[in-house]
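Practice problem: predict the structure.
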Amino acid sequence: MRELIRQIFKAYGFDEKWQDDDIEFYSAESKEKTSFFLINYIDATSEGITDVTMLTMLKRLEKDYIDENTNGKGIKAIIQELFVNDNTNVAAQIDKNTSAIYPIKLESLNNLDKYRNLIYSVEESPHYFRRFVLPYTDNQVNELKKIISNFPEKNIVNVLSEIANQEDAYYELAGHRNLDNAYELVIRLFSKIPFLQYNFVAQQKPMSVEKRIELEMDSELLKYHALICNNCTDIDEYIKVSGLPEDDTAVETEMKKRLEKRG
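Answer:
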């Protein structure tokens, strides 16, 4: 998941400024854009993880953000020091411009149901920074990485947009809560990473059945097909497209020739 997150952030001009174990800090490279993200990777694949345990893991970042940790200072203080020499005004507005994303690895998405209310309460917390909880499984990540590797020439955002544009997968997800596939993960990425924007993928208009039939016909049959589709009942029109002569004498002569060939 780290690799996917890094690719997405890089595509949008974010640079990883600091990392400590399972926590990463990203800053927008452009001086015209003040935007920061904390990424807190959480492994919740162990058996017997209770609501209390999960809440403790989700609250850890908030606690370490302001409290002194093993490094002797909170994460906020560490981040502020990164910008002291560049822009003191930016350093003073870290809280206002920071969001946190919590990618949570689960053994099975079936376990997600029991954490839904807890996740909602964490995301709605008003303290310090906005929060976005991103559940996923290794199966989803591996499937998505395989798809992305098939299109090395494409920007990752375009690949994600093409996956999200799959109509059949959308209806399948709508009918089932958890699919544990790449499509579901992509939809979550778009909903949980604030700056990740869906690039509309234009779909070629489906070819009509009528057009498909016409493409399969040879040129001679196509002439009759056009008359039939136009509800033509004039026999003379059919004679014209057949290439037969129109006067009676000529018709009889032509018929004799064809009968002689058969005889």
